[in-house]
Here is the input.
Amino acid sequence: MDKVYVGDKSKSSISTTALNLISGTTYYVRGYYKTKKGTFYGNEVNFKTIGLGSTLTNGLVAYFPFTGNPNDIGPNKSIGTVFGAELQTDRFNTPNAAYYFSSVASSPRFETTLNTSSITSGLTISVWVLKVGDGTYSPRILDFANSSRETVLPGQLQMMFGYSNVWEVQHYNAAGKLFLPNYLLMPIGPLKWTHCVYTNDGLSIKFYQDGILLNSTPISSGPPSLTNLLTIGRFNYPAFDAFNGKLDDLGIWNRALTADEVKFLFQNDFKP
Here is the structure.
């Protein structure tokens, strides 16, 4: 970090800019001046750079930490209902801090209605996933759809985790057309707690896994939107395509997070 010079014998001051500082870090500085008699130092002061954790509240639509309950602790405080899903240990081995969806009879799930009206120019979905078993057919991590499933709505979205340990996102634009007609499959590899992030800023779609950008694909389908009926752990309706595994820390934003913000989510236990 550059030194900060403050003051000299004539009471004037000189300042400089410190570059390449780390977010959320405390730095200590003190000014000094030099004369023929030597170097004289001022008092030490400190400052803390703004952490990425604070910027992650910007544009937050909903956040489900699953710490003992299904409550949304985001700004909208959405209320949902759990059907058959069990509270179990999370990636830190903390009891009752993640939900397990067993896929038995495609019944275990979580349902809620979100206020997604602010999602007009950008979208991010972030979730921690641990697959336990194969689930049924094309297992859904989460599913934004309508209640009847008979028609495709603008903003419909499904995030899936397939039998071959890959995940993908199918997302429909305002005209009911897929943003990516040719599905991109993201291999997860050895089964473990995995951080999956999907972003859409209307110009490109990006997939991140464990803080690393896996794919960035340009799109020309217009800005993203999102329906408001969310089902976690299975297909919305009818009851099939159920996921078999644990889910935790589901976050939804009305903007595309930056690569640094995604990495921060992977490296830290973020709670808004």
